[in-house]
Amino acid sequence: MNPALQGLMTIVLGVGGCLAYFWLSNQVLDKVIFPARGKNIGKNINRANLIRPWLFLFPALFALGLYLAYPVVETLRLSVTERVPVPGGGGAFTYEFVGVDNYAKMMDEPKFWEAVRNNFLWLLVVPAMSTVFGLLVAQLTDRLKWGSVAKSMIFMPMAISFVGAAVIWKLVYDFRPIDQEQIGILNAIVVSLGGEPHTWLTTPFWNNFFLMIVLVWIQTGFAMVILSAALRGIPEETIEAAIVDGANPFQIFFKIKIPQIAGTIVVVWTTITLTVLKIFDIVFAMTNGQWETQVLANYMYDKLFRAGDWGIGSASAMVIMLLVLPILVWNVRTARREMR
């Protein structure tokens, strides 16, 4: 069957199934469980109205349980067990409890610490650069006639998948021997200036920064949109009062605007931090963790699907979750506090 037709059928069946569920569940609730008739009609209607919101929430709760809660529990179980082949079982496996042995083995591997070190480096650079560039673009284009066009161009990378962006930038960094024509933009510029082409992605340490540029390029648009909205929310009276008092543009920006949108800056920073902690696609597509560019998510993939080591792979997944969880909880609490 044509993939497009399969996708259309999936959408139709999914939407139709949801509508059928909502209609049928409400019919059963109103006509079978708590029928609106008899001497208890008022009490039945009240009971049905108490249950009805949970009927609408059930599909979402079920999906969250199936695709979020269950994988977390199963990953935790796999991280404290070892998969052992059953003798004469025809490829069957059994799981033996090993406690924290998988975590100990993982921490004994140099590749794990390389991944931790690189993730920490990404955390230092990408959220800071994305937020700074996004803030600068939001401020500089806010008063320009063509500012909306510039913002659209900067936001455009957000519409590209991480793998697509990695392919684009891999061509930018492409290397050819010096006697061949360079198709990589960066090496073409270097050669045109009289230099020699470099293998940018195979140079240890510095290649991490070349990978980070890709994520900064994508996330700057996100930071720009959020921070631009925050800047527009600053009362004009505040800025006008500062101008009357003799404040220059730099003082207005750093002493008036930045303090008033500090909460939004922190939210943008932490949101990009969550993305960085889970970064996988760019590294996988561009270097596959080679040349000292390994990160935690790619290390997890290598262990799970290349080495077939479900114990250490699941342990690394739990490490990623433990790193992400505190920031996620803090973000949710901050958002709730601002809504109140």
From TrEMBL:
The chain crosses the membrane at residues 6-29, 50-70, 120-141, 153-172, 209-231, 261-286, 310-332. It is found in: Cell membrane. It is a multi-pass membrane protein. The keyword Membrane applies. Pfam families: BPD_transp_1 (PF00528). One of its GO terms (cellular component) is plasma membrane. PROSITE patterns: ABC_TM1. One of its GO terms (biological process) is transmembrane transport. Keywords: Cell membrane, Membrane, Transmembrane, Transmembrane helix, Transport. The keyword Membrane applies. Residues 116-331 form the ABC transmembrane type-1 domain. Belongs to the binding-protein-dependent transport system permease family. PANTHER family: ABC TRANSPORTER PERMEASE PROTEIN, OSMOPROTECTIVE COMPOUNDS UPTAKE PERMEASE PROTEIN GGTC. This is Sugar ABC transporter permease. The lineage of its organism: Bacteria, Pseudomonadati, Pseudomonadota, Alphaproteobacteria, Rhodobacterales.
